[in-house]
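Bench notes, afternoon.
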Amino acid sequence: MSTLADYYKKLLLWEDQPFVPLVHAWDPSDVKRIACEFQSGIEKSRLKSCPVPITPGSSNQSVGNQVESFFIQLVGRHLPSHFLEKCSGSGYPARVLREGIGGRQFPLEIKATSDWNPSDSNRRVLTSSSDKLRKSFGPPFRHLLVTLCYEKNALDVFVTHVRFDFLEPTTPVNIRLEASVSHKILSRGDHSSTPI
């Protein structure tokens, strides 16, 4: 198994970019302060007792996105010294955790699941290209992954707990090389295509 630091080193080589460490160790005092602030924000917002408004007929992925938006709007208002902001552009990270004083920015990714199972080996894609990360943040790069666990009953969806993973250079990750296409790429490709 590789580490997050290994992944970014290999990725920069693949992207033909000069090496810059893209993941740094967290300062334990930052971890404690951020965790305490989120705990307070979750309690003050009463997140766990508020039903998440879900559009009828939503797919599981859509429900997860709606849970994420609800968390950001509700809990974000109750964080005294941090802001949950959108990170413009596509790719990782989707969000920025920004300090109100000092202005430090942390890459933040939020995932939602209806089941947290420590033995579940299903993939959760965290990051791919380094472009957005390199352009939107500067060193030290300290990554935060938030997992929102929710339950659905016949009428409502509720967030049951929130897990914070302060990712380190030594955090184990799976690496998979992937190839993808888009309509644009296929339209410009030098291969044969036949619309019928």
